Amino acid sequence: MGERLNHLWRIFGTGLSFLAFGLGGLALRVLVFPPMQWFVRDPQRRRRLVRRTVQRSFAAHVELMRRLGLLTYEIRNGERLQRDGLLILANHPTLIDVVFLISLLPNADCVVKSAVARNPFMRGPVRAAGYVSNDDGAGLVEDCIAAVKAGGNLVIFPEGTRTVRGQPPKLQRGAANIAVRGRLDVTPVRLSCTPMTLGKGEKWYRVPTRRFHVVVDVQEDLPIARFLDAAEPGTGGDAAAARRLTDYLTNFLFV
Fold it and tell me: Domains along the chain?
């Protein structure tokens, strides 16, 4: 009986956390960000303030999920993220990966889907934080490089979507192209969720039999120089370097 009640509570708590996330995004858009637009005139300072606000709201959401008894978590080597100008590449097992990562990054930048940028709950935070939109395919790589070189911490999931359970990981080459063309070192992050939940195609109410445990394991920086040929940026050598980096990450992030 106790296990049944606990399971029902976690279904209710999961629904409550989704509701809180949506209402929180709407509150930021309506109540928090407009005054920042009015009173903080410097665009760079305003953007940084918005990103710090998003970080704290995401950290609060992680704490809410913990207090509801939905999850436990462990952050390993989190101090490695307390720098500016990082290209952070991570695997993507669950829906809440981005929440965990941004909760650790005071100056986070992200590549967001156009659908997210139009979502009424997320549109305000996305625009105010100046996140990179994937609408402009032609200029996306250059926009990402510029974001990192401007001091932002750009979070990218090279898979492009959540990992499909039971299938081998398949990384797209876009993230590697950003690293290679921008001559940017990579900060890899391994994410795990045990037991698995909120995976690709999984319903939110299909909660596991017990609280799930998330591990965010920040690895040492991966120097891009080890993957480069002697070729200059923009030459054919970049394609080979991006392929080598993608192959390496496919093995490195899924050990």
Answer: 2-252 (3.40.1130)
